[in-house]
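Standup notes
- DV: blocked on the single-chain target, sequence here:
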Amino acid sequence: MNLTMILIVVFVLVVTILFYTFIRSVWKTFKFFLALVLIGMILLAISVFSDINDFKKNFPASSNLYLLQQSGKQSLITGYTQIMAEEFSPLSQEQISAYEEMLSDKDYQSIRGDHYKLFIIDQQAFDDIESIALDQTEFSKKQADQLLASENARIGYLEMKQPETDILSRKKIADDMAASDTEFKAYLFGQMLSSSLKKDPAFIFKKNKEGSLRVYPETMSFRFMKILPVSLIDKVTTGEQE
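- DV (later): unblocked, structure below
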């Protein structure tokens, strides 16, 4: 075997050894990062499902604050706090004005206060609603928007509910109503949200993903839902199986 042949063999052996060492090193590194990714995914899954269970448990039993925001604007229309279905407390106009100022400063923590969750819902989140029932009277979504925009919502409500009565009678009945215009709008808003949740239990997650609803604090489950296809959100929130 001449010198040239020996050099070629040595070169091939060296290259083979170096290549093997490189591949082995890359494979070890890949396995390391793969293990990190798998651990991260497991921790993420645990965090998400723990947060979903926490939300399912505490959302219905805790005090939550709901604010209705005018479509495309920073101004608030109405709002309320609620614990379970029965304990409904409309916000006063003074509270709405105070929250509106905090909202312009993006001071969500101050708005939330001691409530479990703060929900800021844009009017457009309810665009899929066809009708709303309030006090055994059904209104179209357009009529509901008109009442929410009205400075005399109670009179407008009575006009839709009792069109045969004259304006003075409607005004007297409105003045005798226990709720103010702001409080009446809160009840209407609450009925719109209640109807939406009955129709679609994943309404809050879907609208948060869509951007027409904001939640504070936006915990892991809400951030995770934003990256899921809508078709999977129902399965995750309700536990549906294929």
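- Follow-up: Residues 131 and 142 are 9 Å apart (CA to CA).
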